[in-house]
Design brief:
Length: 82
């Protein structure tokens, strides 16, 4: 197993670094804090709609965890962190 890990280590490192870089690059184009509110502001003057953009982003991160928390808590086996 250790030989298999060492064989693929360089490839995995490069691919994961590129994945993180492209994710950050893409997130910069659709930033929920700056770019999307500016885009919506060009279409409407409604402060409510412009202010909803960060709220919808935060809800998208938080709501799935809230919906699955009860199901996860009922599991008999929880995978260890380490």
């Amino acid at each position: 197993m250790e030989i298999e890990i060492q064989r693929h280590l360089r490839h995995n490192l490069i691919v994961n670094l590129l994945d993180g870089a492209f994710f950050g690059f893409g997130l910069g184009f659709a930033s929920f804090a700056t770019i999307l509110p500016l885009y919506v502001a060009t279409m409407t003057d409604s402060a409510l709609l412009i202010g909803l953009i960060p709220a919808i982003h935060n809800a998208g991160w938080q709501l799935p965890q809230l919906f699955t928390a009860r199901w996860v808590a009922r599991q008999s086996h929880i995978k260890p962190l380490c």
